[in-house]
Amino acid sequence: MRTRAVMTAMMGAAWVAVGLGILAVQFGRFPVGAELLVVGLSLYLAGMLSALLLAVVRAGMRSVAGRALVPVGYLVFAPIGLLLALLAPVQLDPLARGASAGWYVLVPMVAVAYAGVALAAGLGFTGGLAIVAHSLATRIEQTPG
What is the pTM assigned to this prediction? Predict the structure, then answer.
């Protein structure tokens, strides 16, 4: 259990590092002050949620193929979730970036929701493929012949 908590925290930290790096390199800006705190917290929470989703879906897979496909699905859909989490402050820009207290509360909530939806869809898709593959393999094994 302790290992899972450490891995979840490390995944959250990795999302912060990668997300801030993308902001700096691709978009040419690095948040400062309170905006840095809000964006960092948003990415950290989204990263932790993604790690928890990965652990739960992977633990639910009974087959070896399922346990192998779920991390592949995570690697495919994590960048989409990360970019959606980075878009959260842009979506809330009409709220006068950082001018109201509501902005500081809404940005983490929207970032986690965007990233969570993308990753849940991706892990659900790859988990579903793993279940179908396992069912087909079981059926083929049981076919007399």
Answer: 0.77
CB 34 within 8 A of CB 54: no
Long-range contacts of 97-106 (CB under 8 A, 24+ apart): 97/35, 98/33, 98/34, 98/35, 98/38, 103/38, 104/34, 104/38
- Tell me 145's DSSP state: -
One-letter amino acid at 4 equals R
Q: pLDDT tens across 35-68, in order?
A: 788 888 888 988 888 888 888 888 887 777 778 8
Residues in the chain: 145
DSSP 8-state secondary structure symbol assigned to residue 58:
H
